[in-house]
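Protocol step 6 of 9: fold each sequence in the batch and record its structure tokens directly after the sequence line. For illustration, a two-sequence batch is reproduced in full.

Sequence one:
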Amino acid sequence: MKKINIILLFIVTGLLLFQTSVAQCKMKNTAFNGGENISFNLYYRYGLINAKGGVGSLITTNTNYNGQDAYKISLMLNTTGMVGNIYTVQDTLLSYVNKQLQPLLFTKDAFEGNDYSKERQLYTYKGNSISVRAMRKFNGILKFDEVVKTGKCTYDYLSLIAYARNLNFSGLHPGENLYVQFLSGRSFVNMYIRYKGTSKVKADDGKTYEAIQLTMIILDDAFEDKEEAINVALTNDSNKVPIIIDTKLKIGSIRAVMKSSKGLRH
């Protein structure tokens, strides 16, 4: 969690909100459709090193999950060349959410540094309770396989993306925060997203966008940097596409910059 996983928390913001009823977790999707494909260049910074060193993609498709219509959201991150030699990242993450954007299943297969991990989170909804069967293997050793429960709306790393892209940012003031509960492994973790206003941002597709600027604050001992672990820029439009994701790592930082997008809803 201290490594590239933090990048997956980047894109949640809005008004201060505490949700306790599972019924409140349902949200109308107006930001994206199946068929969307966003690609990134990855840049690595550590000391005097500042080099382009990898690619990433965020892809959404329509699918069927246990008989219900759903979205499959996939995130792939791969470092290459000199950067890959310094810090290897080969991550594939999948999140299935229903059409009301409630998480159903999250999976993660990751090579990070010299380690390999597998995670699974299976969500079950009953009344005002959410049960999640959480499993993790680390370098082939089972670390845990258990069921955890909560009464709050809870998101995995990728379902946060779908949730955030459907929030209304109009009327926010710099410095406003949003509390969000997400599931990291088998632990419910608290975080805040701080809205920092808007600015002009240039992406690797050669275009300049008006962007929403966010900073992530993680209130959990699992993370070394509790404030400004992640800085994010989202397009200030109906699509709310991530343009830049700047993430602090244990060794240096990785900056993901959008290089292309297709299949956008708007």
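Sequence two, same batch, same settings:
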Amino acid sequence: MPDATSLPPEHDAMTDRDPATGHPRPPRREFKARGSFVKRCEGCNLPELNCLCPYQVKAESDAQVWLLTHSIEHYKPTNTGRLIGDVLTNTRVFTWYRTAPDEALAALLQDPRYAPFVIFPDDQPDYADRVVDIDAVHTAKQQARIPVFIILDGTWRQARRMFRKSPYLDALPVLPLRTERETRYRLRKPASKAHLCTAEVAIELLCQSGDETAASVLDDYFDVFNDSYAESRYYRKIEEPTAAMQRLLERQRAEEHG
């Protein structure tokens, strides 16, 4: 079972064997983003100029987030899925394989303790019978089961392919995210303001399912990431803590004296 807060080792996604055929995978070059020459913090992967580590705060939640991550996303420093693992202690990260599921994920999907939901839009009729709303999450809690939000971590095009090409998810209920939130993500240009990044999806789901404190911490942490990374692109150091930074530092102090 993978560590709850760590991404899979790089060589697993690059040189591992195909789980279905056993054949070696072709080598994949590491993703090179603009500014890949910048010296980055080993802890948060942000440029050291505006390291995120001083603002990390852990939070507990009744619901869990499991990320099914496209292999390319692991190498993108702008990926926000890792922020969820930084904050929520029970986050799990799995690499998406087209031919077969991660063995640990397959086992967890059969575990009766969990009530997993695939987070995906309800915009096609062929899976309409699987669509549920947020009330199903609250029902799972009442049944003493742990709600799990399975978020497909990739571009919209990748997420749709992952949804369609993952038969091991076909029996799971589909939970569309209903929200009026517009994205605040500044590091990639979305096709629409309604297209939230991975961290923002998790924030909204946590808030709607009753984990308001965890949602609030993750939201502040996302804002710090957003601001820190954006300023680092222009080699500008954030000298005065932002409002989100101050709130996270206050939470840290409260925990130290709690």
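Proceed to step 7 once all outputs are recorded. Observation for sequence two: The beta strands are 64-69, 92-95, 114-119, 146-153, 174-175.
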